[in-house]
Design a protein that fits this description.
By secondary structure, this protein is an alpha+beta fold. Helix content is 54%, strand content 16%. The chain has 27 helices and 23 strands. Strands 12, 13, 14, 15, 16, 17, 18, 19, 20, 21, 22 and 23 form a 12-stranded mixed sheet that branches. Strands 1, 2, 3, 4, 5, 6, 7, 8, 9, 10 and 11 form an 11-stranded mixed sheet that branches. The longest helix is centred in the middle third of the chain and has 40 residues, at 301-340. The chain is elongated and about 100 Å long. The model is unreliable at 708-715 (pLDDT under 50). This is ABC transporter permease. The chain crosses the membrane at residues 260-285, 312-335, 355-376, 403-423, 435-462, 483-507, 721-748, 769-793, 813-836. Keywords: Cell membrane, Membrane, Transmembrane, Transmembrane helix.
Length: 851
């Protein structure tokens, strides 16, 4: 069978060229993704601030009862010193007034000088800080600021910018890659932290040559003895785990890369499987006459299937020799682009191991064999008499199982999208983006039937309006639905995916803006361009002349649960909300800043001991106005509140609105995401805005706008860059696939072209017919893509904006549609010209072949 497959493959090199190219491109895409995923799996995060500690006990965000724990750990026989690590949000401003960006979007924190030993950060010059207005900087940050011992730098605190004198510079043994270090005196650090539990971790320095593993076990026991069943609120880490304790709230470069490449890889695998399957199916379908002849000379169905499977295996092996090295090269290029775009730091290594290449080859082989099996199964079922009786091999019709599966897939996707439109299914844009893949599977399964319907809807009414060449093209397309489906499906895939990925963020932003407009009463919105806005901004803005109300919006985290009549919190089965959105604001300012659509109670009843709940959270907890709820904060603290109001406009906002006075003491970073300001009746709104801008100069990162300007959502640069890379590679892949498919389909029509020439058609007429076929194929494909995109975008738009007319990226989609038409016409015209020059496509060549 191997020899037969090799001989048939050698004799049909042109027929398998498209399959070879499709497999090469699929291997390039999947290998690139696999190499990046393997790099993210191999890359480890190194401890920086805790590199000198043997064991770290970290809180998330704070260590509860930190002083008790420090005393307990210091008393262990193997511990030389237990050092509390107190940190707080901090940013530095250079001489031009610009905020100094932290490397690779790491944590922007200041620290107490007593924790410098955990680095260990050793003084390179100067001395330790001895006064509250003195700081020690690491040498890298000092270089960015152009400061040295004795110079003055400006740092942000809760009340805005403050000048500090640099008393010294420090260097750790290993240069930090994800943060800068600023050290204050312990008293100033506690003031700036402003938290009830300011200690984020306790670093332990072991005595002599104590085994870190044994020390860790002692520490774990001490933690359990102190906290009991609540010991899960702290993490005991040693070795590589110290980095996880240090950066618990900041994603590592490896996790960022793996999440992005995981999505990219899933879509790439889907597209690759889609294109490879379609190309191989078309390659096998073009051999129906040959297969019929083999069946006529007693070849069994099993022999036909094994022969095709062996041919595909040989093509896959040849493609792997080209595609795997190409994929490694593309991975290196993507790595360079991601580094330059700031998605991953320059120190992140690209690791090329044996796992990724072999995994992609095996995966490509499985996909190719499945596609070959399906195509060979259909081809082997054609009866030899049918093939030998027809001048051209008949197109196999889709079986009833395939049709039933396609209908079920489309019905399932329709049900999910209907639930999205009705607001019964969470997930929003993510659900919509995944549904386009499901829809494409259904479209591929029913492609011949869908193309037949699309042709009847679009082409039949157009036929009387077209010239003779166009009418002939319509007749040809109506007769060959299988060929039309094979050429149109890659175009549908490309346009549908691109349209969805481009338009879903627009629809989501449109829905967020609508919800914000309905909710917002404030006249001015001050947004944060960095880690956040110091709470002093809102406090000072509230005292400006002409301001009726002002408050920051602080995002906090904790577990919300119902409190029963006995004062006990309900368990998970009795009503609790974990991971819900919690926002804290000044209670007295809320009624003047927000219209939350209150259903029960009143926002005027908010106070330091009351809370407002969204309808969804209230239903989940089973509470109403007057009931009590408890918040278990991440730092181990807990507060109980009375429900003062239940509101309906919680989508995109918060499940619970808490008083800022109590919530800020438990926040990991007590910085406001935004500040809302309401102008007093009769006051000059422009004058208030000018005062807010003047005040913003003292709070780096604060950007003043109005209600409309602050409502829009902003996409991260990393996500935007990766979507751009994703769409570029998908469209390049599908473009090559379209060229392959059209070239193969056109080259297989030499006999048809010769018959047309025998009937008196000129070469120019045949080429014009082919051009019309290409244009009409694009029209059918764009019609299907519009239906797929509309099926996804319309329900999402109805759910988020209340309108059935979604926001569209008209410019890119128009360019994509025009490019698809140009590519299709150019490919078909060139392939048709080459086919007409073939000896078998001339009238004489056909006559010789017949004789």
């Amino acid at each position: 069978m191997l020899r037969l497959a090799w001989r048939t493959l050698s004799g049909r090199r042109a027929g398998w060229a498209a399959g070879f190219v499709a497999l090469v491109l699929a291997l390039v895409m999947t290998t690139a993704c696999a190499v990046l995923l393997e790099s993210s799996a191999r890359a480890g995060s190194s401890a920086e601030r805790y590199a000198g500690a043997d064991v770290v006990v970290g809180g998330q965000p704070f260590v509860p009862r930190a002083e008790d724990l420090r005393a307990a750990l210091a008393g262990l026989p193997s511990v030389e010193r237990a050092v509390p690590e107190l940190s707080f949000p901090m940013t530095a401003v250079d001489a031009s007034g610009r905020t100094v960006e932290v490397p690779w979007e790491g944590p922007s924190l200041g620290h107490s000088w007593e924790s410098a030993v955990l680095g260990p950060f050793a003084l390179r010059s100067g001395r330790a800080p001895s006064a509250d207005r003195e700081v020690v900087l690491d040498s890298v940050l000092a270089g960015r600021l152009g400061a040295g011992p004795g110079d003055t730098v400006r740092l942000t605190g809760p009340d805005g910018l403050r000048p500090y004198r640099v008393s010294g510079l420090v260097d750790p043994p290993r240069r930090p890659a994800r943060q800068y270090a600023v050290f204050h005196t312990p008293d100033e650090a506690r003031r700036l932290a402003g938290s009830a539990q300011p200690v984020r971790a306790i670093g332990l320095l072991a005595k002599g040559s104590v085994d870190p593993g044994a020390l860790r076990r002692q520490v774990e026991q001490a933690v359990h003895d102190l906290y009991g069943d609540d010991s899960g609120s702290v993490v005991v880490a040693s070795g590589a785990g110290r980095a996880d304790a240090e950066f618990w709230d900041v994603p590592s470069p490896a996790s960022v890369l793996s999440s992005l490449v995981g999505t990219f890889g899933a879509l790439s695998l889907f597209v690759a499987g889609f294109v490879v399957s379609g190309t191989l199916t078309l390659a096998v379908a073009g051999r129906l006459t040959e297969i019929g002849l083999l069946r006529a000379v007693a070849a069994t169905k099993g022999q036909i299937r094994r022969m095709i499977a062996m041919e595909v295996l040989l093509v896959t092996v040849a493609a792997a020799l080209v595609g795997v090295p190409g994929g490694i090269g593309v991975a290196a290029l993507l790595h360079r682009v991601l580094v330059s775009g700031g998605v991953i730091p320059p120190s992140f290594p690209l690791s090329v191991g044996p796992v990724a290449p072999w995994a992609t080859v095996v995966l490509a082989g499985i996909v190719a064999q499945l596609a070959a099996f399906a195509a060979a199964r259909r081809a082997s079922r054609v009866r030899p008499v049918e093939v030998l009786r027809e001048s051209a091999a008949p197109e196999p019709r889709p079986g009833w199982r395939r049709v039933l599966l396609g209908v079920c897939v489309l019905a399932g996707a329709g049900g999910c999208l209907g639930a999205v439109a009705a607001g019964r299914l969470d997930g929003g844009g993510g659900t919509a983006e995944s549904m386009v893949l499901v829809l494409m599977v259904g479209v591929a399964l029913l492609a011949p039937l869908i193309c037949r319907v699309a042709s009847a809807v679009l082409l039949v009414p157009l036929r009387p309006l077209l010239p003779r060449d166009g009418a002939l093209a319509v007749r040809t397309l109506l007769r060959r639905n299988g060929r039309l489906a094979a050429t149109a499906t890659p175009l549908v895939l490309s346009v549908s995916l691109t349209g969805t990925l481009l338009c879903v963020p627009l629809v989501t932003a449109q829905g967020a803006a609508r919800a914000e407009r309905e909710r917002l009463v404030a006249d001015h919105v001050v947004s944060a361009s960095g880690p956040g806005i110091a709470p002093g901004y809102a406090e000072r803005a509230a005292r400006l002349p002409g301001v009726a109300a002002a408050s920051g919006q602080l995002s906090v985290s904790g577990e919300l649960s119902r409190v029963d009549a006995g004062g006990r919190a309900a368990g998970p089965d009795a009503g609790s909300l974990v991971g819900g959105g919690l926002v804290a604001m000044r209670a007295e300012a809320v009624p003047g800043l927000l219209d939350l659509g209150v259903r029960q109670g009143s926002l005027d009843r908010l106070g330091d001991t009351s809370v407002a709940l969204g309808e969804g959270a209230a239903a989940d907890l089973g509470v109403s106005v007057g009931d009590r709820v408890r918040v278990d904060w991440d730092d181990g603290g807990r507060d109980t509140y009375r429900v003062a109001a239940v509101y309906s406009r919680d989508s995109g906002f918060a499940d619970a609105l808490l008083p800022r006075a109590s919530a800020a003491r438990h926040a990991a970073a007590p910085l406001d995401d935004t500040v809302l300001v309401r102008t007093a009746p009769g006051a000059d709104r422009s004058a208030v805005e000018r005062e807010l801008r003047v005040l913003a100069a003292e709070f780096p990162g604060a950007r003043v706008g109005d209600g409309a300007a602050g409502a829009g959502s902003r996409s991260g640069a990393a996500a935007g860059l990766f979507v751009l890379l994703l769409l570029t590679m998908i469209n390049l892949f599908t473009a090559v696939s379209v060229v392959n498919t059209l070239s193969m389909a056109t080259a297989a029509r030499r006999r048809e072209f010769a018959l047309l020439r025998l009937a008196g058609a000129q070469s120019g007429q045949v080429l014009r017919m082919l051009a019309w076929e290409a244009v009409l194929t694009c029209a059918v494909a764009l019609l299907q893509a519009a239906v797929v995109c509309g099926s996804v975008l319309v329900p999402l738009s109805v759910a988020l904006t209340g309108s059935a007319v979604p926001a569209l990226a008209a410019g890119p989609l128009t360019a994509l549609a025009a490019g698809a038409c140009v590519l299709t016409v150019a490919t078909v015209t060139l392939a048709g010209r080459l086919a007409l020059r073939s000896s078998t496509a001339t009238p004489g060549g056909l006559a010789r072949a017949v004789s």
